[in-house]
Structures are given as C-alpha cells and as structure tokens.
Design a protein that fits this description.
Blueprint (H helix, E strand, L loop, with lengths): L7 H20 L9 H16 L8 H15 L8 H7 L6 H7 L3 H24 L11 E3 L11 H32 L21 H24 L3 H14 L6 E3 L1 H12 L1 E4 L2 E6 L2 E7 L4 H5 L7 E7 L5 E2 L5 H8 L6 E7 L5 E7 L1 E4 L6 E7 L2 E7 L15 H14 L5 E4 L8 H9 L5 E7 L6 E5 L10 E5 L6 H11 L4 E4 L8 E7 H4 L12 E10 L15 E2 L37 H13 L2 H18 L2 E3 L2 H24 L4 E4 L1 H7 L3 H11 L6 H13 L1
Parallel strand pairs: 12-13, 13-16, 16-17, 17-20
Antiparallel strand pairs: 1-21, 2-19, 3-10, 4-5, 5-6, 6-7, 6-8, 8-9, 11-12, 11-22, 14-15, 14-19, 18-19
C-alpha cells in the first residue's frame, strides 16, 4: 500500500535523496568502464533498499542464499526443465550473489538464463514426440501435482518420464472434458424436421474413443505450442526485471521492482483509469486480437474497431506503421496505449479477411468496476443498504482524480436518502490501496479520534487521526471481509472493530498485510548522467508498518472477525503467513481512544448467528465441501487411470450440484440498484446492464444473507 498523502512531499523528497546519493556513489566509481543498465539498476536498487527499507538487509551470505533460493523457484518452480546437474552448477553462486552485486556483475542470472534456454529447447522436442502417440489410460500410474514434493530430474531419461506423466495427466483432463461434451450431444433431442432453413443447425458428429483421445492430445499440443512461443519471446530486459524483483522480494513480499510497463498496470489498478483506445486485447495464435470494446471509450465512439478484429500494424499518427504480428501482448500494448488526444492508426484484419486502417484519437478510459457501488436490500419490510468497495483507489498523480473515501461518502449520502436502517460494507477480495482513504473512510463512521498508527523501522509511531467531528452514518454497520481482504481493508476493519462501531464478519482472518509501501520512480531518483540508459522503472519498497489503535499489528496475523462464517476459500494456503520472507507480527503502545457509545451487543449477535449458520443447509453443505477440498489439497498425487479420474470428477460435480441446488432453492434476496442511480442511468442500456450485473450475484449470496440477518438482530 502506498504511504499516506499526509506530508507526502517531504517523505518522498527524503527517499529520493537516499537513492540519488546511492546513484552518485555508483557513478563516481574508480574504473573507466562504461556503466551498463543492469549494473546501475541492481546496484542503485540494493543501495537504496539498504538505507530506506523498513528492515534493511546486510549484503552477506545469508542475503545471497535467500536470493539464490527464490530466483531458482521463479526460474523453474515446476522443476520440469532444469536437471539436478544444472542446479548443482548454479549452487557455485549460492554464497556469492552479494559479492556479484558489489562487483556489478550477475553470473548467477547469466548461467541460469543459459541453462534454462538450453533445457527449454530440449523439452520442445520431448513434448511433441510424446504427444504424437496415444496414451494408455488403463495403466496403474500416478502423477505428483505438487512441485515441492518432487526433485529435479537426475538424467534426461528421468526428465522425459516426468514429462510423459505430466502430458498424460494434461491429456486425461482434456479427454474427460471432451467426453462430457460428447455426452451432452447424445442427450440433445433431435431437431424438428419442420424447422425452417434459417433455424437449422449443423451438429458435429459424435466421436469415437480413439478420436476423443486424439483430440485431447491435439488440444494439449496447441496449449504447449503457445506456451513455448511465449517463452521464446522472453527478452533480456524481462529476465533482468525478474531478477531485480527477486532481489527486492527477499526484503519482504511487498517490496517489488516494476519494469516501466508493470508500473503502468499498477497505476491503472490504483486509479481505475488509463489513457488509450479502450479495447481489451488478447494474444491468440500469435495474433493480437480485440476481445471487447469498453463502452464509452475512444474505440467505442469511433465505431470501426470491433471484437474479433486482429491488429496487424500500429502507427503513431502519420508515422510509419510497426508490425505487431507475432508480438507478445504486453509489448504490443506499449504501442497501442498513449497520451490523451494523440492519434494511433491501427491496421486490422477483419473476420472476413479484409484489412482496414482505423484512426483513433486516444482518450481517458474509465474502468467503472473499479469504483464503489451500492444497492438497497428489502428484508421483511426493512430497507437496508449495501456498498461494494473493490479496492481503496486514489489517483496520486491527479488531485482531481477519484478517491474511494469520497465515493463511499457519496454512496452513504444516497443510502441515507433512501432511509436505510442498516448498512453492509463489503470489503471481500479488497486488496487495499490508499492509506489516507482508509483513514478518511473510517472517519465517516465515527466522530473523531485515532484510526491507525504508523511506524518506521526506528523511532516512535505516528498516529493518523480522523479530525472531522462529523459522522456521515451513525446507524448499524456490518463490515464483510475474507482472507483476501488486505492492507487498507484491514486498517478500516480493525478501526471499526476497536471502536466497537460495527460488526466485522467473514472468514477466520483477513490476509495479514500490515505494511506501508512507497513507490520511487527510479528515473526521477537517478541523475541526468544516466539519461542515456533510462528508463529504469520503479521500486515499491516497504517503509513502515501500521498498527491498530489497540497496539497490535495486522501484519502476519490479520484481523479476526467478530463473527466467523464458513468460507469457500478457507482451504487455500493464502495470506501473508504463506509468503516467503514476510515480516513478523509485533505490537506497540495503544493509542488513546473511546469506544462507540452505542456499540453493538457482539456476544449476543454472535450466538444468534452461530445458531442460524448451524441450521442452514447451504452453510452446512459449504462446510462439508471445504473439508473435502482440504483433503484433496493434501492428497496431491493423482491417478492416471481415466476411470478413477472420471469417478472423482463426477463425485465433485455431484457435490457442487447439490450445493447449487440448495442455493437455488433458497428464496433470493430482494436487491435493487438505488433509485438515484436508476434516474441517472435513464435509458442507457450499457449502464442498465452493468447495474443488473452488479446486483444479480448478490441475491443468492449466503454470506450477505447472514449479514442481513445480523443487521436485523441489531435493529
């Protein structure tokens, strides 16, 4: 999460000064060799981290070992390419990476790249040869799906055998899918002989067992052809970026290096806006294909670019076009995106094979799904409010940009105008964002007081307060969280819990990210002497930890809800605890604060909720499913006998169907968009459909239903 915008100018200036000092030390080295971009990037990044990170690391053998282990996992985490002898070669650098950084070299990266390139080439011949012959799915074989439970192959023959089983498993999965497709065809009734010609459909023939197996291998071959095509397009800059990110990640999981393209993606996620043409693209069969057009965007208004078009060439205004055929998607996007009011000319191939040049004036593209939305819930004559907040967005580069705190404040005002008697604030899957917006948002529900404490690696904590005595909403409040609620979500949930202002409900705990990050643009940090080898990208580094006002950290442990509900994702090993090199939990002195005068009767509400959940068929079925998934997750070795695999899949489908049937049998909740929003939408069909898509899945949401019941208990 970025650091607060509170006094941010001074803080950024200090951080930039640290990196500028580090870079000048680098520039004024004694030898006369020209500086290389990779040396400058790694050295400046590590020197800056050593001074500015929350928990600086010493450049020693322990640091080297961490980088070695993590890079090896990123290089070949599946253990499908490198041989044990390759790994042994790499181990010569296990305790030398710190020295390489000091020397300005990267022998470990170079050797890893060389070995991996050779093994990728070797494996390309292996998979095509194996997939050329049918598999025997009656043989009593098993395949280990968990990479941590296997070792690197000792010989090329052992590697081939591992790939044979891997490809057999992949083929078995596709074959099972094809068998299901064929079964549906057989079950379809024959078309009426009285059907009109325009209504006639051409049905594909039912396949034999041999044809289905061949089709399954064909699909797997296509998948791996695409996969290896992407590997072949990996550039030296991509490998350097991955290596730099590995080094950053050894400080903590949220300290990251962003190549220039990655920083653009981060900004889009934080703001919900970018400048471009407004088309979603995909890479398919070596082509850049238009998947969809964003409603209201520059492409939408221009009208000629359509879903299904293939982009062949890209030109900036009147400049010569550049062919993007065979390009990676992320590389092509750098040409297609661009500043507002600039022209891009796309040469596209239409589905009828005709080509056309389409000029588009770029504009700001808004991703509406990024922003807060609200609805009303009618529950036994009581009108309740619901707010969904996907993340804590803020535009740090534009004071006029949208802010999540300001938007939630507007949604609260609209809900109050609807005379709701309680509100559910949904932070499930909200990974965080702006710290200041979390502070301001908590302040919407209390009069004034401390919200969160922030402390650097040394010194006393700083208390961030809500100084606005106004309370925008004072009624009953439920905050929904799950294990993917992180960072700013945890700040808000913890503050509401510590003030006893509302009830926190959800899975056993939130994610556990209790750290604050700041992004440094390395091009700004490095002086003009390096202009010839820029751009360098950006570094997101952890500079502080945040603490609850009760003194405890949310780092590592997360926030434990007041009311814990069964959760479909509880079987997954997700959260800060599962991350490598995560900072540990600690606590500091509590801040002084007063709990909410009308605090809810948590114990009473918890007991009533527990009784409902225990008697609820949907929750019981969900709990049973989770237990079975836990068992399956631990049992990572799968049978390569088709009959056994099909039986397991059919059992899983039966369980899922049973859960869905119970869900469908339940009376859906009456959830509708706000009257104010419907008036604003008017007859705009795109916005009407968006509002419908927003409320539809909520009507059968059993967690939301229980939150509504708790609100009813509190009223």
């Amino acid at each position: 999460m970025p650091a607060p915008r509170i006094k941010i100018g001074l803080y950024v200036s200090v951080l930039l000064a640290v990196f500028v000092l580090a870079s000048y030390k680098l520039y004024r080295r004694n030898d006369t060799q020209p500086l290389q971009k990779d040396e400058v990037l790694i050295k400046a990044m590590v020197q800056g981290l050593s001074q500015a990170h929350y928990q600086p690391e010493r450049l020693d053998d322990a640091f080297s070992k961490r980088v070695f282990d993590l890079y090896l996992k990123r290089l070949d985490g599946s253990k499908k390419f490198l041989l044990a002898t390759d790994v042994q070669q790499l181990r010569q650098y296990q305790n030398d990476i710190d020295n390489q950084i000091i020397r300005g070299t990267h022998e470990y990266l170079d050797l890893g790249t060389k070995l991996m390139a050779q093994r990728v080439k070797d494996v390309q011949g292996i998979y095509r040869d194996i997939l050329a012959k049918p598999f025997d799915f009656t043989a009593p074989e098993t395949f280990e799906t968990e990479a941590d439970k296997i070792t690197f192959a000792s010989t090329p023959a052992a590697q081939r055998e591992e790939w044979r089983k891997f490809l057999k498993y992949q083929t078995m999965v596709r074959l099972s899918e094809i068998m299901d497709e064929q079964a549906k065809k057989k079950d379809k009734p024959l078309a009426s002989t009285n059907a009109k010609p325009s209504e006639a459909t051409v049905s594909s023939p039912v396949l034999t067992a041999e044809q289905m197996e061949a089709e399954a291998r064909k699909r797997v071959l296509k998948y791996f052809d695409d996969y290896f095509h992407d590997l072949e397009q990996t550039e030296a800059t991509d490998r350097l970026a991955m290596y730099a990110n590995v080094i950053a990640n050894t400080y903590d999981p949220h300290t990251e290096y962003f190549a220039p393209r990655q920083k653009d993606d981060f900004d889009i996620a934080m703001t919900g806006r970018f400048e471009g043409i407004g088309a979603t693209l995909q890479e398919k069969d070596g082509n850049i294909k238009v998947n969809d057009i964003v409603p209201g965007s520059a492409s939408y208004r221009q009208g000629e670019l359509k879903a299904g078009d293939i982009i062949l060439r890209v030109a900036q205004g009147s400049e010569e076009p550049v062919s993007v055929e065979g390009w990676r998607l992320d590389k092509a996007i750098t040409l297609i995106r661009g500043r507002k009011n600039t022209e891009v000319r796309l040469t596209v191939r239409k589905p009828d094979n005709s080509t056309k040049i389409i000029p588009i004036i770029r504009d700001v593209v808004v991703i509406e799904e990024t922003y807060a939305q609200s609805a009303t819930i009618n529950d036994n004559g009581n009108k309740l409010g619901y707010i969904k907040l996907p993340n804590f967005y803020a535009d740090f580069n534009d004071n006029g940009g949208r802010s999540s705190a300001a938007d939630v404040k507007k949604e609260l005002e609209k809900l109050k105008a609807e005379n709701v008697k309680g509100i559910v604030l949904d932070l499930r899957f909200n990974g965080g964002g702006s710290l200041q917006d979390a502070v301001e948002m908590a302040g919407l529900f209390i009069d004034s007081g401390p919200i969160v404490q922030v402390r650097g690696g040394q010194g006393a904590a700083t208390i961030l307060n809500d100084r606005d005595p106004r309370v925008q909403y004072s009624g009953p409040l439920i905050v929904l969280v799950n294990k993917y609620s992180a960072s700013a979500s945890e700040i808000l949930a913890a503050a509401i819990q510590d003030y006893k202002r509302g009830v926190i409900m959800g899975s056993a705990s939130t994610y556990g990210k209790g750290t604050v990050q700041r992004i440094i643009d390395l091009d700004d940090a490095l002086p003009a002497e390096f202009n010839s080898i820029k751009p360098f990208g950006s570094l997101k580094l952890t500079i502080q930890k945040f603490y609850r006002i009760n003194g405890g950290s949310t780092q590592f442990k997360g926030v434990v809800p007041d009311i814990i509900l069964p959760d479909a994702y509880s079987y997954l090993d997700q959260g800060e605890k599962s991350q490598e090199y995560a900072l540990k939990w600690d606590e500091i002195t509590p801040a002084r604060y007063r709990v909410w005068a009308g605090n809810p009767p948590i114990d009473k509400l918890r007991q009533a909720s527990l009784a409902r959940v225990n008697s609820n068929a949907s929750f019981k079925q969900l709990s049973d499913m989770v237990q079975r998934m836990v068992k399956r997750k631990d049992d990572t070795k799968v049978s390569l006998q088709l009959a056994s695999y099909r039986a397991e899949q059919q059992q899983a489908k039966a369980e899922a169907d049973k859960y869905e049937a119970i869900q469908n049998a339940a009376q859906p909740m009456a959830i509708t968009p706000l009257a104010f929003d419907l008036r604003q939408i008017g007859a705009d069909t795109i916005k009407v459909n968006r509002a419908s898509r927003f409320v539809k899945p909520l009507t059968k949401d059993i967690t939301l239903r229980e939150a509504v019941a708790v609100l009813h208990d509190e009223m």
